[in-house]
Write a structure and sequence with these properties.
Layout: E1 2-7, E2 13-18, E3 23-29, E4 35-43, E5 46-48, E6 55-60, H1 64-70, E7 79-83, E8 88-89, E9 95-97, E10 106-107, E11 110-116, E12 132-139, E13 142-143, H2 144-148, H3 156-159, E14 165-173, E15 184-189, E16 192-198, H4 206-213, E17 223-226, E18 248-253, E19 257-265
Parallel strand pairs: 6-17, 8-14, 9-19
Antiparallel strand pairs: 1-2, 1-5, 1-14, 2-3, 3-4, 6-7, 10-13, 11-12, 11-17, 12-14, 15-16, 15-18, 18-19
Length: 269
């Protein structure tokens, strides 16, 4: 099923099962525990990110061709970093280029997002997917100047500005995607194809990522794992392509759908 989080016409938030016609069947209960799908059909007034993450864990340099285009050495283990959960942004709402702590090199990264549905620790490759509620699309927006020049070799600042984690449009439950490493993935910037790949190009599969992340470590329900981006990012192009106000990004992953966001400047405060 396609789980969404949304606002109705009077501003009340709901979880629901997307019906594909601008409405959803209301979900009763906790999507991370026990829930039931009711027969109450509610029009969707505003689509929200499908979950508010308890944590956002990201995997860097996880596509072979992306590692090659950046000249990076492939690690023996997954490269792990975090994004501030407050970076979450809804589908169709703007990515804001920072102006107070300014960046002039903001980039896009289409990623398969894995949503953890239950507490998980020390899983194996055989049972790693048992903790997965489902899959979504994430955009690991990155300020490359803060990442490469001013971040002191740490990525957290560059990845955690407000609005730097668009997520959605839904969570497709795991039963509908038995193999998350066989999905076409792409990015279009103002209609122009920038990234085009398949999750089969991952260096570390989703099973391997979960096995690694749960080793001696607990993943809480609601954790979102961003699994890396394929080749074609703006930083690797000649000349580089940086996001600017007025742009629109549309990310697409097979079996999940599209995540589209405009780009604006951070408003003055």
């Amino acid at each position: 099923m396609r789980l969404i989080r949304f606002m109705d016409a009077v501003g009340e938030m709901h979880y629901g099962v997307d019906q594909g016609d601008g409405a959803a069947l209301r979900v009763q209960g906790d999507i991370l525990a026990n829930f039931t799908v009711t027969h109450q059909k509610i029009p969707v007034a505003r689509l929200l990110a499908p979950i508010v993450p308890s944590a956002i864990i990201c995997i860097g340099l996880n596509y072979r061709k992306h590692a090659a285009e950046t000249g990076a050495k492939v690690s023996d283990f997954p490269v792990v970093f975090m994004k501030n959960p407050a970076a979450l942004q809804n589908p169709s709402e703007p990515i804001e280029i920072p102006t107070r702590l300014a960046s002039h090199k903001v980039d896009f990264e289409a990623e398969l997002a894995v949503v953890i549905g239950r507490r998980a620790k020390n899983l194996t490759a055989e049972n790693a997917l048992s903790c997965v509620l489902g899959y979504s699309i994430g955009n690991d927006v990155s300020a490359r100047d803060w990442q490469k020049e001013w971040g002191g070799s740490q990525w957290g600042r560059a990845k955690s500005f407000d609005t730097f984690c668009p997520l959605g449009p839904c969570i497709v439950t795991a039963d509908e995607i038995p193999n998350p490493n066989a999905l076409a993935i792409s990015t279009r910037l103002n209609g122009h194809l920038m990234q085009e790949s398949n999750t089969s190009d991952m260096i570390f599969s989703v099973r391997q990522i979960i096995t690694f992340l749960t080793g001696s470590t607990t993943l809480l329900p609601g954790t979102v794992i961003l699994t890396g981006t394929p080749e074609g990012v703006g930083m690797a192009r000649q000349p580089p392509v940086w996001l600017k106000a007025g742009d629109r990004l549309t990310l697409e992953i097979e079996k999940i759908g599209q995540l589209s966001n405009p780009v604006t400047l951070e408003p003055a405060s």
